[in-house]
Amino acid sequence: xxxxxxxxxxxxxxxxxxxxxxxxxxxxxxxxxxxxxxxxxxxxxxxxxxxxxxxxxxxxxxxxxxxxxxxxxxxxxxxxxxxxxxxxxxxxxxxxxxxxxx
Length: 102
Prior knowledge:
Elements: E1 7-8, E2 17-19, E3 25-27, H1 28-35, E4 39-43, H2 49-64, H3 69-81, H4 91-94, E5 97-101
Parallel strand pairs: 1-4
Antiparallel strand pairs: 2-3, 4-5
Helix pairs in contact: 2-3
């Protein structure tokens, strides 16, 4: 994964880690970081497939328009919240996504 700008895993709960005895998190976000990817877009809870697909189209459209990763995520969330993305209006869809930057 070394050198990848972004890895996206829009499956169920990909961002959830496990508490260690020293209070740190381990799990997929940490593994992606250690493997060398610069950023990861993961989910905190199970997400609806159709809503997620529509949400991701919006996210990638904003990236293609020249927005940064955080800007594209923020705008896709706004679009979903404002009803501009069919099937993604429910916060359980658009609020699940978290961008990790290393």
